[in-house]
Amino acid sequence: MSGFVVCPKCGTRIKAGRGHCLKCFETLPDPDAPVATPLSVSLGLSRNATIAVWAGAAVAVALLVGVIWQTWPVPADDVARPVEMPVAAAAPRLPPASEPSPEPREPSATAAADPAPASAGPDAAPAAADLESSRADYEQKLAAKPNDPELLNKLGQVLQRMGRTEQAATRFQRAIALAPLEPAYRLNLARAAADLGQTDRAIDQYREAVRLRPKDYETLNALGLALQKKGDDQAAVTEFAKARKANPAAPGAALALATSLEKVGRVDEAIDVFKQYLDIGPSPADAEKVRTHLALLSRGRSQVK
């Protein structure tokens, strides 16, 4: 047994035979146990050579990690995809989501068929490019904010102007689900449904919009026109009467009300409302048509009497 041992922690020489260091209380090694020879000593390496070996090993491990990272298979969901960017053309201005859709065109007293749409002019191509730019822009924004009802409504408006009415109706329906108390979204869905020939669906949405805007002329008149188009003139009379009360100076509701009154057989009331329509001051061409129709109607009443 050696006479002294060295504390591995503090380096104090302690007389052999003690179990702990008197200075730091570290457990002392057995002086007779064989001491493991360091690898560098076994290989006969100097201190600098030992550092170089460890540095080389570290570089090799780093290179191996890099190779594994580069060659590791990429999951299918992480494959890079091109981002659809809007084209350079400026997006057309659209009405805010809080604004109602434009009022449907009002019928004439003679119930003439709608004129054919005008042929596309030289601005048709730029307009189509603008709409496509707006569509791509709103689609990109919705990718980040999929539950934004205003973005859905604006995208629906663009799609409807592009003639993609079914897709537009889907966006309006989604906007309504997210914001059921916004009447503008319901008005837009009603217009899209009417364009798709879904008259009952359009009427349902107009009624909901009226519930939210009970004194709004445009909304009441739009519901009356939808009912009139369906052939339910009795119900249309009620809505047109409300619309006239909301805006007595509006000629459209007066003309539509007189037309529906005539259809349900309330001819005397229809004659009075036709006269009120003329007093409001329509265009000369419309006024002339109504005067001619009113003269025939009044003559027929006098012959019946």
Q: What can you tell me about this protein's structure?
A:
The chain is mainly alpha-helical and 305 residues long. Among the domains are: 31 residues, no CATH class; 87 residues, Serine Threonine Protein Phosphatase 5, Tetratricopeptide repeat (Alpha Horseshoe), CATH 1.25.40. The protein is built from 12 helices and 2 strands; from the N terminus they run E-E-H-H-H-H-H-H-H-H-H-H-H-H. A two-stranded antiparallel ribbon has the order 1-2. The protein is rod-shaped, with a radius of gyration of 43 Å. About 15% of the residues have low confidence.
Which key terms come to mind for this protein?
single chain; 305 residues; mainly alpha; Serine Threonine Protein Phosphatase 5, Tetratricopeptide repeat; 2% strand
CATH architecture descriptor text of the domain at 127-213: Alpha Horseshoe
Structural class: mainly alpha
Got a strand count? 2
- Spans where pLDDT lies below 50 across 5 or more residues: 74-120
Please state how the strands of the largest beta sheet are arranged side by side.
Answer: 1-2
CATH fold naming of the domain at 127-213: Serine Threonine Protein Phosphatase 5, Tetratricopeptide repeat
Radius of gyration: 43 Å
Helix fraction, binned, reads 55-70%
N-to-C CA distance: 145 Å
- Sheet of most strands: 2 strands, antiparallel
Order of helices and strands: EEHHHHHHHHHHHH
| Portion in beta strands | under 5%
The top-level CATH class of the domain at 127-213 is Mainly Alpha
* Average pLDDT: 79
CATH homologous superfamily (4th level) name of the domain at 127-213: Tetratricopeptide repeat domain
Number of helices: 12
C-alpha geometry: rod-shaped
